[in-house]
Amino acid sequence: MESFKASVQYGDWEGTAAADDADPSLLKEYLQDKGLINPNEFLIAASLYVSEGFTNVRAFVFPEAHDFESVKNALAAIARPIPVREVNVKLTPEEFIGLFKRFHVMLTRHGLQLEGRDYSGH
Questions:
Q1: What is the DSSP string of 34-78?
Q2: What is the mean pLDDT of residues 58-65?
Q3: Which one of 9, 48, 50, 65 has the fewest beta carbons within 10 angstroms of its own beta carbon?
Q4: d(CA 98, CA 25)
């Protein structure tokens, strides 16, 4: 079973990612314009996986949802794995990142417990 957490084969590096939507969400618009998501589905997650000569972009949509609050309430009531529809999207990494206003990835060496810690640099 998969989860909403990034992982790779060896896991030498781990980290976090954050992004700001363009206004309106270009990713959601792209998926709608391509007919990949329906009006009654809510985009809850996106994944970008890059390997040697291979890129996989996936969008995860929640069924029968109309707005953020209804999705949040529905997810809070689910104890089992979250039912989603997974959509494979044909985008390059550059195209995917370009659908956001800002995009930041921070990788830290596995095992050093650096995530969220402050640092001072020169």
A1: TT-S-TT-EEEEEEEEEETTEEEEEEEEESS--SHHHHHHHHHT-
A2: 92
A3: 9
A4: 11
* Separation between Cα atoms, residue 27 and residue 59, nearest integer Å: 9
Find, among 20, 45, 33, the residue nearest to 100 by Cα. Answer: 20
Count Cβ atoms within 10 A of the Cβ of residue 96 and give its class: 0-12 exposed, 13-18 middle, 19 or more buried: buried
DSSP letter assigned to residue 103: E
Rg over alpha carbons for the chain, rounded to the nearest Å, is: 16
pLDDT band at 24 (very low <50, low <70, confident <90, very high): confident
Q: From CA 60, how far away is CA 71, in angstroms rounded? A: 13
Q: Please give the angle made by the CA atoms of 89, 83 and 101, to the nearest 5 degrees.
A: 40
Place of tokens 């930041």: 104
